[in-house]
Design goal:
This protein has one domain. It contains 7 helices and no strands. The model has no long low-confidence stretch (mean pLDDT 87). The protein is globular, with a radius of gyration of 17 Å.
Amino acid sequence: MLRDIAAVFLLCFGLKLAATLLSLAAGWHGSVATLLGSALTLAAGFVLLKSMPDRRAGSGARWRLPGKGGAAFVVAALACLGLLLLQVMIVPAQGTWSPLLQHQGATAVVLYLLSYALIEPVGEELLFRGFLQSRMLAALGAPAALIGVNLLFSLGHWSSWTAMVFAVAFGLVLSLYRHGGGSLLACAAIHVVHNSLVYVDKYFFGVLVRV
């Protein structure tokens, strides 16, 4: 299990570091480095998930949209939205907001949005809810695995302790949904919508600047 955890973090952070160093050496814009790092992480997630002997270990989930479990999907989606709203309500605004377009060109903004709102959340679901959760369930059982995988997930959201706390809560909702038979694709869809709300607002409107 420790090897699986190390593999996930090496892929999450190592590939992004490699993309950053490559971009610096090539003189590319930071948005290109971000996009490349996210794309490499997504590809690694697919490879790890495909390498598993039983890709549905510990869960009845498949890469499909919700069918009979549609009610559970709605509950999970609303819970994640509720956590986002709660975070906005209780966490003080951080600094002075200004739209990204004041500092970056339109192409860079599009690349950042593709990275953070689409590619990154899908990659995280593959790595954490898809690969690592299944491995930890097999080793530890449900309570410890579901909590543990999301404590690890929160380390990638270390910008503040409140961000990490809400990352644990957000991840737990998705982990419980998946463990109950929910679709990995549905988890990714919820994560994409969540990140899209956060980053579109962060770059253009400034209402959710706490996250």
